[in-house]
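Same chain as my last thread, 416 residues:
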Amino acid sequence: MFRRRGLLILVLVVLAISLGFGRLRSFTPSQAVKAAAADSQIVLTLLQDPGTFNPALNEEFPNIFQFTFRGLTTENGITGEVEPALAESWSIADDKRRIVFTLREGLQWSDGAPLTADDVVFTYQDVVFNDKIPTATRDGFRIGDRRSFPTVRKLDDRRIEFVLPEPFAPILRATSALHTGVYILPRHILQKSVETRDVNGNPLFISTWNTGTNPNEIVTNGPYLVEQYRPGERIIFRRNPYFWKRDAQGQPLPYIDRIVWQIMASTDAQLLRFRSGELDVMGDVRPLRPEYFSLLKREEERGKFNVQVGGPWSGTTFIAFNLNRGKNASGKPFVDPIKSRWFNTVEFRQAVAHAIDRPRMINNIYRGISEPQDSPISVQSPYYLRPEDGLKTYDYDGSGLDLWMGFRHLHQTHNG
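reply #2:
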């Protein structure tokens, strides 16, 4: 499959100047303002309602779990390195098949119950590796030709052993919630739902913690818990008093008591609400549309906010050609044989790469706030190879467009 250089849109995080002062601007509804009167809060926005409150069943981004749950490890968003999260450390045996994770001391769930190795084993053995539960995180742990899972067992309350069928380099990243989406789940709350079957023989877990669940029933281990959910309006997150993390001075985190996620189905509506002062941040989880940048940049001083470039977005934009040469049951090719011959020709794909005027796209579409990418691997990844270190690049070349037009002409002539 051919992938062109994706344009990394720089995340334009628009932070209200009020972030530098005591209280952040509140959203408009009077009852919410009164409820939050004694708390610091920040008002964000998202485009649609969440699909689930169950971390194991999540298949969307953004989601509530970035605020409410954590995994054994995490990844540094700048360096891409694996870092401790619920596990404070880990050790890898010489044979690379045995890894022991040690949990932080004194971990607790948001209901005050202790978070122990039992929760980790339950999460992996009873949920992630359970073929009765449709979780998208499972495949990240299939190892080797036999696609076997690790064996996860408790050594003591704080130590968990992963035994692999063979050495598997990605295992640490697989335990990162940011990488595979495996968040540690509360065994004392969810075990019964895994063991109990419905009339169709499926675990009740599949229908547990849906968006109709009372938020007070959702037990979390992250910096926040869900305080309120009004479909089509907002989600309110309240600070988890049992969250483990502290800053360098020993102060408990997070600093902000409350996060309000306003649900707005259109980015234009978000822009209007931000300009009217009802939102504190815009562009926090997805890049702003480029045309908003010019408008907001002109209004910075008058609007009393800052437009900041947050760095490269980790996704890529690419073109894919269908290289499938197979045929259906009646012998008809899945792809037109003429097009298939083009697509499976390396020189054709290279010509298309050279024909894409990336500098012009950056200037005209992205207002100059973008970077070219020559690899499907994001620049933040420690596995990214830079052009100066040998990565092959396909810079814009008008001759590539000529070749592209030649292929089109041949196709039209053949059909004529």
